[in-house]
């Protein structure tokens, strides 16, 4: 007789303790979003890009630096770093997903990659003087680990929640992430805005803030590692060989099997477009604020702080709205708002704080909600026992094509020497994502995966 391993495990008997056990694990799971958001906000979102540009400018000759044999504007480096790490991860993540679905140690893999990412983030503290290359290498490795840990984090979601709970749990995880990332960002905002108060110069204030993100990420990762239980793998395909050979065999079976789930594939295509747009906007917003609109780093960091705390409410609100009208319609509404955001950015006046703050608040409303619901919505189309593999494809397709947005931004900026048209060009990703998402048949996708439909789809 087999032992149940999914979210229904533990039911039966006189008292059904499964809901209490799920709730306990869900509370622990929320804290990984709380932990790794330190990297996505303080490092990737705000400080790394502008600081990398400043370090590279100090090493520039005739206004350009040499990177991999190309003479580039320092201002274009952040838009080039992301594609390098994402292309690497696009090849690595599916293999990791196959490994994860053949082992019960998903939480250990989650924590291991989280701690490795924190280590490489800590190396950013040593980016100073003219060694901007160290910053690029460290960021690429940290971002790679960030993506890998996200695969295992997302794969755990279907194991600790029922289909009916999925949108709420995913949205609350994102809300925890924005709250945690916002709290650390608030501390770093004070340090970077007034470094002399703490006896620091601006460079050291930024470097200590980067280091604080590494410590935060590593420390809070212990909570999900201790609070989530491992589960034995389910429905593993019978393939032969060693660990890597079996994992590649499992991956090949999954890729062939994906054609039997056309709804999941259609959603993946939609997601890779609209999420590419979201990630590029997030990654380039601080550069846009400092280099194009003329704001100092402290003000941009403060705007990101606003985004973080607005996003807490936005994620929860989107989860509640999805309970009323369904996740698909809610995501589509969010994509319309994203289109308006990048269009408005084309006309923002320089050094006018209030329009920039209003745009930041609008981003906060839709940022967490669209991403949280995309995660929970896709989970409905995943057959049981293949969570890590499908979420690895989810992240690999995202990362394997997310360089499109960065490259478009990079090319438009270098052609126009303006961040305004570069940011506006991203509207095409939201339009394509919305068109593809509108074609997704939710009820059919749930049936094909053999999952239970939530009361509102």
Automatic annotation (TrEMBL):
Signal peptide limits: none
SUPFAM superfamilies reported for this sequence: MFS general substrate transporter (SSF103473)
Domain Major facilitator superfamily (MFS) profile: 263-457
This protein's record includes keyword Repressor: no
Main location: membrane
Alphabetically ordered keywords of this record: Membrane, Transmembrane, Transmembrane helix, Transport
One Pfam family cited in the UniProt record for this chain: ATG22
Bilayer topology annotation: Multi-pass membrane protein
Residues forming coiled coils: none
Name this polypeptide is given: MFS transporter
Organism: Nocardioides aestuarii
